[in-house]
Specification:
The protein is an alpha+beta fold. It has two domains: 86 residues, Winged helix-like DNA-binding domain superfamily/Winged helix DNA-binding domain (Arc Repressor Mutant, subunit A, Orthogonal Bundle); 69 residues, no CATH class. The chain is built from eight helices and nine strands. Helix 2 crosses helix 4 and helix 3 crosses helix 4. The longest helix is centred in the middle third of the chain and has 22 residues. Bound molecules: iron/sulfur cluster (SF4). The site of iron/sulfur cluster has 13 residues, from loops. Iron/sulfur cluster (SF4) binds next to loops.
């Protein structure tokens, strides 16, 4: 059997951990997917429309999922600080606890962690490469982190008190981004071809934050 096919078939088997019939710990697979995404998304992507795009559902389906998660106290809506007419979805402490204790992908995360750091990096980079090919073929973009995004720039001197400690700037949203936020998922992400330059800035900021 060609190696590529064997690898993809193993991936399909691994996917049984997160695609399943019925529910686990009270949530269906798409509800888990939504809660997981909202637990990792940045403030621009925790909206009902970004959620619908990420889980590949209609706005009506995403709204139903949000209602289910709210009814279980895993999620609350708050007005957006950037635009008071919009809402931002926040995962509650109870939602975070549920994710850390019962998320069906936790077993897969543990198995991948057991591979060791170098193997994890290789696996992550290979899967990212595969997703890039799929995104190009389907003219679709998945969410990814600011760290790899073309809109991330180093920030100039701050004039605003809010987020005065933010080290970076999003040129798309024209908003400050803190070092921690560069690791969160964003559905407006566009892959950069200029990684080494911003990597340098990130490394400097990371070292400074560690004292
Ligand atoms: S820099 Fe890119 S990934 Fe980060 S918030 Fe802006 S658009 Fe999203």
């Amino acid at each position: 059997m060609p190696l590529a096919r064997e690898a993809v078939e193993l991936l399909v088997q691994a996917a049984r951990a997160w695609y399943f019939e019925g529910n686990r710990h009270g949530l269906r697979d798409r509800e888990w997917m939504a809660l997981r995404f909202l637990g990792r998304a940045n403030r621009f992507s925790r909206t009902p429309s970004a959620l619908a795009g990420f889980i590949g559902a209609t706005r009506a389906t995403a709204s139903q999922i949000v209602k289910t998660l709210e009814s279980k106290s895993f999620l609350v809506r708050k007005p957006s600080q950037e635009d008071k007419r919009s809402v931002v979805l926040h995962v509650t402490a109870q939602g975070e606890k549920c994710l850390s204790q019962h998320d069906p992908i936790n077993h897969v995360v543990n198995a991948v962690t057991a591979l060791g750091n170098d193997e994890c990096v290789r696996l992550r980079d290979s899967l990212r490469e595969v997703l890039n090919h799929l995104d190009a073929a389907h003219q679709r973009l998945d969410a990814s982190v600011c760290r790899d995004c073309m809109f991330l720039a180093e920030r100039g001197p701050s004039t605003s008190k809010a987020r005065a400690s933010a080290e970076f700037m999003c040129r798309l949203y024209r908003a400050p981004i803190s070092l921690e936020e560069t690791e969160l998922l964003c559905t407006s992400f566009e892959r950069t071809r200029d990684r080494p330059k911003i990597e340098e800035h990130l490394d400097r900021a990371r070292m400074a934050s560690q004292g």
